[in-house]
Amino acid sequence: MSRTSAPAPVDQPVDAPLSHGLKQRHLSMIALGGVIGAGLFVGSGAGIAAAGPSIVIAYAISGLLVMLVMRMLGEMSAANPASGSFSVHAERAIGPWAGFTVGWAFWFLLCVAVGLEGIGAAKIMTGWLPGTPEWAWVALFMLVFCGTNLAAVKNFGEFEFWFAALKVGAIALFLGIGVLAILGILPGTDAPGTANLTGDGGFMPNGSEGLVVGLLASVFAYGGLETVTIAAAESEHPVQGVAKAVRTAMWRIALFYIGSMAVIVTLVPWGDPKVVEKGPYVATLDHLGIPAAGQIMNVVVLIALLSAMNANVYGASRMACSLVARGQGPKALGKVFGGVPRVAVLVSSVFGFSCVLLSYWRPNDVFMWLLNMIGAVILVVWIFIAVCQLVLRRKLERESPDKLVVKMWLYPALTWVALAGMAAVFVLMAREADTRTQLYYTGGLVLALAVVGYVRQVAVAAKGDAEALDAEAGKG
Hints:
It is found in: Membrane. Helix content is 73%, strand content 0%. It is mainly α.
């Protein structure tokens, strides 16, 4: 399908459309690299410490859930590409209040995440250059990626393509070295066999409780895939682009995530304190005697953080622009110049930098409050995606079956299975003290947005009814 014949993103203003500068290679790498972040390279260490070798099962379970979510989102986005992605689908399937709620909640998540990633990247830089202020590095990164996103969308695509390529290359190299070591082929190493998998407490050393903690850690490590369906609306061939990106990303993500976890727990004793202190990838490379392992992985983690900053500024600006185009935000945010929503880029970047300043000024109250509010937002997004797919699939089959380029497997059974899985994750979060707090704060944010969205929806409907009555009275 050509760019001219592809369905136009319905949420874009006709008089100031977003550009179509992203190519298929950009989309494929955004889909693949968007999910490979610091959560995998560093954060997975806490999951391994809790679950032991059974972390492989935890990542497999959460990976299956994410694959189902992405298949559902891919089905809807291929049928109706839109820069607002699941926010647009929620508005179509449930109502304007739903699109408002999930859209602004996701925008808030991305903006806070930009600040967090900036802080993480700055800490790496100050480790290399002691004495330099962290805030200055954050400011520099913000300027770079704000500038990148203010320019043509193809610039964002190129940055993200090469960032993602480096991350994917690092993971592929790690897996290659790991497999050689497991087989005993790597010079200076002996095949470990199953000693680390079955020794020191067995495959599930901390029982089901440890597996639960590992499962929760793995679920949130997968966040970031949603960006590809936002970017698809600005690609040369939106329908084909999102369909191919979603299909190819799934098995690769399973390979990178589950495969790397399997390599790590096979080669390194799960109780090794270095797994948490240095991160599992550095601990594994150190264990194998790879020179300068720590610095190599620091470079990879820095790239992952900068990539995430770039992608999140992009995603936040497009979501804000889409919401405004649908009458669900300040009009100034929706202004598009040269195919780019530059006001939305600036506001999203400023909000992200404000979060960084709060981490210095009010680290124990306001900043923690922000972190807790975004703790479970991605799960809320996934639930909206599943509910929307249940509604819109029936509508598509009835009205436009030709648009079902990507189909959810075993519909509707697997959609209900995914919803049950999400509900189970919520229950597990409620059982843990730390994650229970996140549920409270995220729930408060989502409830507040839903109330505002519903009030706006009622007000707009009332205004429309009044205008219709006035028109009838004028005719009479």
